[in-house]
Amino acid sequence: MVTPVRATMVGRDAELRTLGSAFERSVAGSPQAVLVAGEAGIGKTRLLREFRERARTTANVAVGQCIDYGATPVPYAPIVGVLRAIVADMGAEAARDVVGPGRDALLLLLPELGDGSVDWSEVSASRLHDAIAVLLEAYAARAPLVVMIEDLHWADDSTLTMLRFLMRAISNARLLIVASVRSEDVGRGTPAHTFLVESERARLLERVELTRLDRQEVRALAESLRERSLDDDALDSVFDRTEGVPFFVEELSNCIDGTMPGTLRDLLLARYDVLDATAQRIVRVLSASSGWLPHVILRDVVDIGDDALDDAVRAGVNASILEVDRDAYCFRHSLLREAAHGELLPGERGRVHLAYARAFEQHPEIDGEYELAYHWNAAGDAPRALDAAVSAMWSAKTSYAYATASQLGELALELWDRVEGPEKLTDLSHVKLMSSVASLHRNAGVGERALALVNAALEEADRSPVPPDLFVRLLRDKAQYLANIGRPGAVELLIDALALLGDAEDDNPGHVHDERLRALILNMLAARYMLVGKAHEAIVTASRAYDVASSAGERAERSIAANLRGVSRAHLGDVTEALADMERARADAVDAKSRLRFSVNYSDLLNLLGRYDEAIDVARAGHVGAIELGVERSSGSMLLHNMVDPLFARGEIDEAERTIARTLSLGSLTVPQSYSQRTQVQALLWRGDTETAKRLAGQWLPSFDTIARVELQVWWAASEIRLEIASAEGEWSEVWRAISEALDQRGGSGHILHRRNFLLKASAIIARWRDSGAEHDVDAAAETVRGAWRALPEDVATEPLSAVVDGLLAAPIASAIDVLHAAVDASDDATVPALMRPLLRLQFARVLVASGDRGRAASIMDDARHLARNLAHVATLAEVTAYADAAGLSGPAASGASDLLTAREQQVLALVADGLSNRQIGERLFISTKTASVHVSAILRKLAVSTRTEAAVMARRAAR
Prior knowledge:
Layout: H1 13-27, E1 32-38, H2 44-55, E2 60-65, H3 77-90, H4 92-99, H5 103-107, H6 125-142, E3 145-150, H7 157-169, E4 175-182, H8 191-201, E5 206-209, H9 215-226, H10 232-242, H11 246-252, H12 262-273, H13 277-287, E6 293-294, H14 295-302, H15 306-318, E7 322-325, E8 328-331, H16 334-341, H17 346-361, H18 369-378, H19 382-398, H20 402-416, H21 422-426, H22 430-443, H23 447-463, H24 468-484, H25 490-501, H26 515-532, H27 535-552, H28 555-571, H29 575-588, H30 592-608, H31 612-628, H32 632-650, H33 653-666, H34 670-686, H35 690-707, H36 712-728, H37 732-742, H38 752-771, H39 778-790, H40 799-809, H41 817-827, H42 836-850, H43 854-871, H44 874-886, H45 897-900, H46 903-913, H47 918-925, H48 929-943, H49 948-959
Parallel strand pairs: 1-4, 1-5, 2-3, 3-4
Antiparallel strand pairs: 6-8, 7-8
């Protein structure tokens, strides 16, 4: 038998915490009522099931279900379900005894409790209400009670009256009432609407509104169901069609590119089926539109009386199919539109789209270029569709809506061969159109499609000659797209393009004389040389670009040339001249493109130089500009990445993780994405999650190695990941291998600043290696790193960093006191990464202990603990705590923890040792996050430690 995959609940942590907090208050004796509201499929039932499973560990849970019985609902139906569950647990006799005189009233709902001899004329609604309240109070006295009423929108008046009474009358019982309601089914005039308005006004209910999932949450849910990863195109499809509604994600997760499952279509059309013929027609007509449709367009398309149109739309709104906003209409959900669109007959569909196209043409005051292209195409008028698609494409590009523009461009390409004389109609050649659409895809972050289109354009240009300048631009574009996705060949293409440009003085008719284009291509070539590690060639080429741009009066290209030359000089260690060039670049950055390039490269350079605060400021400002230009998925993702490394250096791991999450969610081009993936692995290692870091590195490193052939900094990134994972696992032979490979011929052929920062990181890891007691090869590794450091230029190997490296590489012996003292002092310099500070203090304390100065060592270890705690670097804090404890420089021994802590605190400490957060501890023990935090604070105080990690280390040691 195949076991069905159960969806993982995602994106509902806050809602669970709200329910948990209400439950905790009810357990303390203060009755609570919570309403979980949201649209159909949003996950109300899933949330309540998850909460119910947790609540049952410490409470009794009774569930009542409201059922749609049409116009004649059964009175008290969900209340009966609750009462039967309670009586089944208490026993009939105990239930009768509890309610006492009210037992006759209770028999109204549970006749099986009596013998049929009740005088019904003596039973009133108030007696029934009192009897049920007494029963609930008595049952809640035995154990906390959670009463769940699902689908309150179908509740009858009697049930709602009963709930209103219970929420007001029960004031001192361990009772939590949780109800769920479908928001769209509680319109004005319904009993549930009146009940909710009154209850919320009287503050009898706390409302929890479930919202739709975001893009990353949709990915997590779909992948949990598919049990395999989802690529960006598939994610786009799921997210666009489901709009973040969990039920729809579940239904479509295994048929992403296929038709809607029939069961889902039937469910969606159930509301449509009850509409009258006119309303159904309006819904079908609206399904042929995209997005919000202005009223004037719909009126012209359907051509019926205003009153009839208003009634039909109102019926669609009341059926929760349509929404109204000012003077426009839209479907509540794209899948509803998709299902309704399937009800259009073929001939009807063509007529509707034709009517839409004509209506939009009659209303030029409405911005409807996209709609014109869509409807003319659907109506089968290819010439008009092509003309509208190209026009809308240029408009979308002007607005930086690159994703929309690229879709319109694809439509134009699809229509091209169906139109006679498309060149005259669009004033474009086919090659030029392909080139333009490729550029739009690139700016939208879709690198592979951009490359495919420019390749097709070049093939066509070979068959049918195009103007020389267009051919040069195609070579330039292909070089750029190859670079964006980390493939080789860009340098050769740019050299070919320069050959076609010729010299400024020649008169060869086959050459293009465009000095701005020459400067641009020279800059691109300089960038490729810079990134591959050929700094000398980059400087020469950028200088040539600078001169050409100056002669042509192109300040923006001159800015880019100075920018590239400056970074290349820095890679050779000439920091002074590099910064002078960057100032030239800043002065000439007169347009958005040059300013963006300056922000990307200058923020990266500032980070490499250790000017972390400035790096973050420059990158953050540049990122704002990238968003305004609509290029967040390309240049914008690079700027986000340029914030992450300096955040790491400053020890701001929380902000770094938020920024990494943003970059990963963008689905950007291959190369920028690789930088984000590198920092994701490093963040996981920082948090101590070596297993996940190693798994992701195994997935991503093959791609890194491919990209590294054309981008040396990705090669350094891969080297760092291998080094850090080997260190985290204590695989010192692999550490030695990673260091040796990184310092080989390629590692020394440029990118001096990357080399320097790698050596700094390697020095810290060698210190850990030495502390582990595994002496094999550690001295050789230390000497190798020390020698490589001393070979760096003076501008790069600054005094503070050199002192830090000397301290990290020093053997922890008494004679190293002065070296380590100097290193500790130097580590406070702003250019030194924050993580070096606790590590060096740990090393200093070791030599102080070796020399007999335990008092000074204890003071230094206090500093180390404080610094490590603030950094939240799991491995460093564990090392500091372990050494302090082993050397007798810490607080009370872990073996005494059981005597110091209460039973609940010991329970919490065990979960802390398992790595659970306060929220997770609260969920596991069913206490609030705040209460969990109070317990953790008490534990830290009693154990005389400063952090959760220290407490966890003590707990694990005690367990051994």
